[in-house]
Amino acid sequence: MPELFRSVEELETALSEPSAAVIEMLRGLDGDILVLGAGGKMGPTLSRMAKRGSDAAETKRRVIAVSRFSSTEERSKLEANGIETVVCDLLDPDAVARLPEARNIVFMAGMKFGSSGNQALTWAMNTAVPAQVARRFRGSRIAAFSTGNVYGLSPVLSGGSREDDAPLPVGEYAMSCLGRERMFEHGSRSDGTAVSIIRLNYACELRYGVLVDLAQRVWRGGPIDLAMGRFNVIWQGDANAWSLLTLMHAATPPFVINVTGPETLSVKVVAQEFGDRMQRNPVFVGAESATALLSNANRSRELFGDPRVTTAQMIEWIAEWTMSDGPTLAKPTHFENREGAF
Question: Residues 175-188: what's their mean pLDDT?
Answer without folding.
Answer: 97
